[in-house]
Write a structure and sequence with these properties.
alpha/beta; 15% strand; single chain
């Protein structure tokens, strides 16, 4: 870690399931649980809808880390959406590593609607982890551009 990272405030994209993790974020807010303001939350109907293109788009457009939140396995409103998420997540981590992006910049968590405290803890931990990694470099963003152009 260099000294410039002391002032570094990471930009984190949170992609949260409508039925569980998004409601946990709402619960944390209503309960006045504070967590770092570094995260910008996007709600999706199911974590199973998180397309790998969303992850690449996020990193290409300035996200230093991306947190995917979904229902606990077995609790998905769409039966198996979170299982699809888990498979994609494991594959995405390998792809990110292959193109030189630290795989720790992508995290998946199962957080139910009643787990506002867990959401608070996870966002704090992830923000600190991304802060310790430093900003994503423009070189990585360039590699993401190459992925988009190969389609």
């Amino acid at each position: 870690m260099n000294n410039n990272n002391n002032k570094f405030e990471p930009k984190i994209l949170g992609i949260f399931c409508n039925w569980c993790t998004y409601l946990a974020a709402d619960l944390a807010g209503v309960s006045r649980m504070d967590y770092p303001a570094n995260i910008r939350i996007v709600r999706t109907m199911c974590s199973g809808r998180v397309d790998p293109q969303f992850i690449f788009w996020g990193f290409k457009n300035g996200a230093d880390g991306i947190l995917i939140g979904g229902c606990h396995p077995g609790d998905c409103h769409y039966i198996e959406g979170n299982y699809k998420t888990l498979r994609r997540y494991l594959l995405l981590k390998r792809v990110l590593k292959e193109i030189g992006i630290n795989e720790k910049r992508l995290r998946l968590e199962w957080i139910s609607a009643s787990e506002g405290e867990k959401l608070q803890r996870v966002v704090r931990e992830f923000t600190e982890e991304i802060r310790s990694l430093g900003p994503i470099t423009e070189d990585r963003a360039f590699k993401l551009n190459l992925i988009e152009h190969k389609k």
